[in-house]
Each structure stands twice: as C-alpha cells, then as structure tokens.
Amino acid sequence: MSQTSDAREKPLSIVLEKCAKTFADGTRALEPVDLAINGGETIVFLGPSGCGKTTTLRIIAGLEQPDAGGRVLFDGEDVTNLAIEKRNVGMVFQSYALFPNMTVAGNIGYGLRIKGWSKADLAKRVTEMLALMRIERLADRAIDQLSGGQRQRVALARALAVRPRALLLDEPLTALDARLREDLRVEIDDLLRSLNITTIYVTHDQAEAMALGDRIVVMQQGRVAQIGTPRDIYQQPANAFVAEFVGTMNKLSGRVEGGIFVTAGGRMPWPEAPAGATRVMFRPEDVSIAVSDGHLNGTIASLFFLGDRVRLFVDVGDAQPIVIEASNRRKLSRGDRIGLSVDPRSFVAIDH
Amino acid sequence: MKTRGASFFLQLAFTLIVCAFLIVPVLLSMLAGLTENYLVGIGSGLTLKWVANVWDNYRDTMFLSLGLAVACLACTLVIGVPAAYVLAKRQNMFTRAVEELLVMPVAVPGLATALALIVTYGALRGFRTSWTFILVGHVLFTLPFMVRSVLAVMSAIDLKTLEEGAASLGAGFRQRFFHIVLPNCRSGIVAGSLMVLTLSVGEFNMTWLLHTPLNKTLPVGLADAYASLRLEIGSAYTLVFFIMIVPLLLAMQAIATPRKPRPVRREDETP
Ligand SMILES: Nc1ncnc2c1ncn2[C@@H]1O[C@H](COP(=O)(O)OP(=O)(O)OP(=O)(O)O)[C@@H](O)[C@H]1O
Ligand SMILES: [Mg+2]
User: Fold this and answer.
1) Which of A34, A252, A279, B149 has the lowest tally of Cβ within 10 angstroms?
2) What CATH number has the domain bearing residue B99?
C-alpha cells in the first residue's frame, strides 16, 4: 500500500456562502458570512469572546449545520450536508478531547484504525507522527499522565496522522501558560509552513493571530469586521472596532484646519487629512518624544517599566491619555511635561 | 516511626467493633450450618449433612437466582446503557422528566410493583408461571440503578467533545459508541452491574409475590427454610449462598478496579 507515502494533493480551498447560524434556543450566533479560504493558507479567526469564531469553525468542520441558505464548499464541491466523519478535516479542540481509554500511540493511531490501515502501516505512521511532534518517549503513556503542552502535541499529531484535507484548531494554546504558548506557537507555525496544509486557527489573542496568520478574519458580534493580512489589519483597520481590538490605538478628537489637526494638546500637521475629520488614531510606536516642544504637549500621567522599554500614559487634555513607548534610557517620571510628535503618514481616520 | 495517638486507637477499636457487630452474626450463622445440633452447641460436633441437605433440596433455587441475576444484568445492560446515553446526550424537558421517573420503582415498595405486574399480566398463564415473570420484576427494580450509575459517569466526562474528536477522525456512530463511549463509561457500567447483580440475587419483597412453587429464588427458599425447617438448614443455606456469591462479587470487583490503557515504560519527560 502507498498510504504511508507523503505525497499530498493540492491543498483544499474552502468557501463559505451566506453561512448564518441560529441555535435552537434562538441565539443568533452568526450573521450570513461569506468567506473564501485559499488552498494551503493559514487563516486566523480573531475576535472577542462570543463573536462566533467557534461556531464558524464548527460549520466548516461539519459539527454544526448553517441555517437554510448557507453553503460550505470544499474545492468547489458542496459539503453542507456531509457529516464531519466524511469530511476528512483534522480538528484540535481547546480541551484537546484526547481519549482517556487509549495511550498516546492509541490516540494518534485511532483515525488510521478507523480507516482500516494494516498494523504495520499504522505503527509506521504513528512513529512518524511521534517523531514529528517530538514525543517519541510518550508513546505508551496514558493521557492523564501528560502535561498540558504534551497533550497539545498529541492532539496535533492525532489530527495530522490521517492526512486531513484541512486542519482546524480552536484556541489550541489558550489553556497553556504564556511561555509554553510562545514556544508551541513558533513550532506550530513551522509545522504548518512545512506541511502546506489549509489551516484555520481560532484565537482571541491578537499577538498569536499576527504571528500565525497569512490572513486574519476579525469577527465582531457574528459578523466579519475585516479580512486581510496581519499588516493590513494592523495598519489599515476597516473600522474603530478592528483598530482597537488589534494592538493598542490612540485616539484624539479635534478638527482639521488647513492641513493641521487641532486638538486640546496641540496642533499636528496632517497634509492628507480627509475633509471634516473629527478624530485621528495612531499607534504608540509612531509617536516620538520631541527634544523640546512637540506637536503635542502633555504630562506623564503614569508609567510602567516593561524591562526593555517604558510604557507611558500621557495626558494631552483629551478624555483619555495617549499611550506611547519610550526607550528605558531616558529619565522620565510621573508629572514630567513632554513634547510628542507623530508621523502624519501613520494617521488612521475613522469616524463612527 | 511516629507514635500513634489515642484517637487512632479509639477509631481503630470503633471500626473493629462495628465490623464485629456486622460480621459475627454472619459467622455464627454459618457456623450453625455446620453444627450437628445448634441447641446443644458446637460441642455436638461438626457435620456437612445440613449443607448436603440444602444442596439436595434447594440447588434449583440457587441456580435460578444466579440465572435470574445474570439475565437481569444482561437486560439492564442492553436497555440501561443506551438509555443513559440518550439521557446524557439530549438534555431537554422530556429527558429530565424520564430521569425523575426512573426513581419511581425504587421509591414504590416492591410489593406494590409486584401486585401491579400480577394484576396486569396474571391472566397470561404461561408467562405468569415462567421465571421470566420474575425477571421482568427484577429488571424493573434494578434498571434505575444501572441507568443512574452509568449516567453519573457520562455526565462527569465531556462525552460530546470526545465523540466529536472521534468523528473528526472518521469514526461513525457505531465506532464512536463502542470505541469511545463504552470504554470511558466502564467504571459506571461495572458499578451498575455490581449493584444489579447483588440487588437481583437478594431481592425478596417483590419476588415473594411473583414466585410460583416451581420458581423459587434463593431468598424465597431461605425464608421457607427458616420458616418450616430446622435452624441448621437455614444456616447451612446461608453458608452455601456465601460460597456462591462471594467469588462472583470478588470477580466483579477485580474487573472494576480501573486499568490503565497500558503500563508506563519510561518516566522521562520530553524536552
Ligand atoms: N449550542 C449553543 N446553543 C446556543 N447558543 C450557543 C451555542 N453555542 C454557542 N452559542 C452562542 O453563540 C455565540 C457565539 O458562540 P461561539 O462559541 O461561536 O463564540 P466564540 O467566538 O468561539 O467565543 P469564545 O472566544 O468565548 O470561544 C455566543 O453568544 C454563544 O453563547
Ligand atoms: Mg470559541
């Protein structure tokens, strides 16, 4: 049999057409969503709790049916009514869902056992997956003898062993501590790139989304707020929700007067200001501390030492202080007056 | 070694007294079954004749009881485990009502259930006189114990996600049920089985009404023996009963102790 060869067909493309979801109790979890996921890409669903990420993922997996009218297409083929066990998608659950009645090797080999692989082929593939996830030594362990990180590896190995057409991960790292999360994230990233498999990754951690996603789907209350590369999302947020959910964003209100944005804290040059803009947004890293007076002047309301840098909250007379980051070599303390200048090219104009 | 305080010895003594209180009568009763003449005492000599007597006269009741218990267990497994599964999977008004109803046969006295059965099916001669009539009563009485015991385990594990995990790996309903659901509910099934077996073997109230002279179970026979014969015979009966039931319970216990999937070979960690 050639089942153990690693040749893989063209990665799967997934299309959602007007997929909405209303649960039996009347909860409207998802408004009609249209989404096209290219073969081989890693797409991240990002959004706050309850926005419908898991629901969308479960519709793709086949664990949930979209409301009438919605369709799910795999490589152009309608799979809306196909049960999950026929879709051949690998899933990693937040709670891992490893089978306590089987060993690590038993878990990893389960999908192959279902497919009726011969003992020898199965053992070979399991060994391969154990090596891939670097858990060879855990093969005979029971599930309750594993740490969280080890369980995560087993869950990934189990999902990948059957060579799924797509890999679906629902907050796989949320249950782990920060350090381990970082390490595993890097490892998963490497793995996904080397496998060239279509992957959907659900998270509410924007740093994770930025690091892993080829594209990010930002979701808000059952709707897609924006789809784009991490860079797009960060630099050109489609609306205020995206701007504030992804990274830190400063907001100032004021008005435009001949290429100058006038606010309580000062006058900032803004040559390309849209007519009638009343708000401007910019990221902390686009602000520099001026030697003397800057475009904006304010007092340091509070400051936090972060090790490599200092995070400052500067009161510039607006409702909320603006957040900036400075090198920790500068001697700054609370109550100091400082001048700031902001690169006008980094301005984002969004009006509600 | 740490010296043990007075409270330890007090507790030990208390435990031993309680145990003695429970065990001594049983031992005395079994001893009586081996005594030539109970009224005279042990001095009258030991004999196996009462045991032989019981074996000759009541062998059938024992086999009927064991057969009934096993048949009852089979029925409660076949009905109870799927029922618990449905109750665990579908949480709605109806299933909650069924869960409540399941307590009924336990709350209603066995005599009442037995009377209801006789009123309903008494006219069916063949059924009324067959051992399956008693079986129906036993299943009614023990089924809730099986369902509740399995349901408790099913509710404690995240069955839904485990099944979804199996489904994502290609497992259909039957495969999920036999590979994932049943093995992970093993402790509940075994606990339920133990209870069903012991309850069925020991059931008297209901069985006393349901039985016919040709279909006597062990407890009914025991009552007969105590009522109409010598005390020694009743005691010998108890002895035989123990010899039969204890190995059965021990075997069940052995199955019940949780087994790890496979022994752990190495103790080292991954990097
Ligand atoms: N089975 C269900 N029945 C009823 N409502 C549900 C069900 N599952 C989810 N919901 C609701 O649908 C909405 C979206 O849920 P979903 O699980 O998709 O959110 P999420 O984005 O994954 O959130 P989180 O980050 O907390 O996991 C929520 O309001 C949730 O309460
Ligand atoms: Mg979720």
Assistant:
1) A34
2) 1.10.3720.10
Between the CA of B171 and the centroid of ligand 1 the distance, in Å, is: 25
Ligand nearest to the CA of A170: 2
pTM for the model: 0.80
Ligand 2 ion: residues within 5 Å (CB) = A 54
Q: What dotted CATH number matches A251-346?
A: 2.40.50.140
- Lining residues, ligand 1, CB within 6 Å: A 23, 25, 27, 29, 47, 49-55, 204
Q: Which residues of chain A have a CB within 8 Å of the CB of B164?
A: 63, 84, 91, 93, 97
ipTM score for this prediction: 0.83
Query: For A179-224, what is each residue's pLDDT tens digit?
Result: 888 888 888 888 888 888 999 999 988 889 998 999 999 999 999 9
| Residue A249 CA from chain centroid, whole number | 18
Q: What share of chain B in percent tops pLDDT 70?
A: 90
Question: In the 8-state DSSP scheme, what is residue A257?
Answer: E
**Which of B168, B175, B261 is nearest residue A101 as measured by Cβ atoms?**
B261
Q: Which helix (H) or strand (E) holds A288?
A: strand A287-290
**B141 belongs to a structural domain:** yes
Measure in Å the smallest separation between the Cα of A68 and chain B Cα atoms: 23
What chain B residue is nearest to A183 in terms of C-alpha separation? B271
B171 belongs to a structural domain: yes
Ligand nearest, relative to CA of residue A25: 1
Residue B85 lies in a domain: yes
Domain boundaries, chain A: 14-244, 251-346
Q: Tell me, rounded to whole angstroms, the distance of Cα A36 from its chain centroid.
A: 17
Per CB-CB distance under 8 Å, the chain B contacts of A159 are 168-169
Mean pLDDT over residues B161-178, rounded? 94
- The minimum-distance atom of ligand 1 relative to the CA of A58 is 18
Number of domains in chain B: 1
**CB-based contact (8 Å) between A145 and chain B?**
yes
Q: How confident is the model at residue A84 (pLDDT cuts 50, 70, 90)?
A: very high
Residue range of the domain that includes B134? 63-221
**Do B270 and A137 lie within an 8 Å CB cutoff?**
yes
In a domain, B216, yes or no: yes
In this model, does residue B34 exceed pLDDT 50?
yes
